[in-house]
Amino acid sequence: MNRRHFVASASAAAAALSNTRLLAADGKRPMIGLDHFAVRAAGMKAPALIDYAASLKLDIIFISELGPLESKDEAYLKKLKAQADAAGLKIYSGGMSICKSSNTYKPEQGDPVAYTEDLIRIAKTLGSPVARCVLGNAKDRTTDGGIQKHIEECVRVLKAVKSRCEAEGVQIAIENHAGDMQSYELKALIEAAGKDHVGANIDPGNAVWSLEDPMVNLEVLGPYTICSSIRDSMIWETEEGAMVQWTAVGEGIVDFKAYTKRFAELAPGAPLNVETISGFAKPFTYLKEEFWAPYSTVPAAGFAAWVALSKRGKPIDSFKAPEGADKKAAETAYQKGELERSTKWLQANL
Prior knowledge:
single chain; alpha/beta; 12 helices; 8-stranded parallel β-sheet
């Protein structure tokens, strides 16, 4: 690559990231959104989700998977965009795993490159500056070749869709998902794939599931962040290690005033989309030797920061539907409560 081509490519990459962030900015504070998975028990489709987000006076409806879309046809997608525009909302969109070697990849998705290109098309039609995707989950760390094998497969797919991203003006936002990657691993994936068209969908709750302090995770991924799915977490010590339960924003162990301040500094213009997945606890039995097989590369200092959080935490109850109550109705009410307390906290504290 000659010098002139290098300078032009670098300028284009900087412009692409800037454009994505400008589309997400309101000029004063990070935009606040609803990741639809926060209210998954309600089973709402996209039109109802748009109305719900508007009723909460949010800025964004983040349809992070294809499930809420009743069609992928252009006419239907344009109708959704018009509905969101009329409600004063911006749509962000995405899908799931683009990694064919992951245990989470669904065979019905077909070729992962074609699947990713379809997510880009959908995002373009909906007016979303990003198409959110994931690698997989923590189980992928236990497979032959470890997480690195799956990172390489993701990089292959992402390189293959670069020209489509550039043509449509859409960036891929890869999430640190369900304990699959630590921040330094996702950073390496983004840099290998090309940070001109790939960024991070940062998730502080999933950071905790990968044995990272969310603030440590943010320091690494913040400069790459173009989207988010956020929630708080509670961590407390147990006889075998620690327990983690996700919570509403402002109700866990994370200092969210510090987190959102640093978020705005590192990822100016990127939105804060709430994805509360509360109500259940997950054990991390790190005092058992067999626990460490998938985590042999975890930095000691980062894990020490995670353990320090657990020493400050306290046990909290998991959700259980009241006796005799309709389970779906109870779960929907609980999930809406977690989400709405989170968005109100953000609206009051940003």
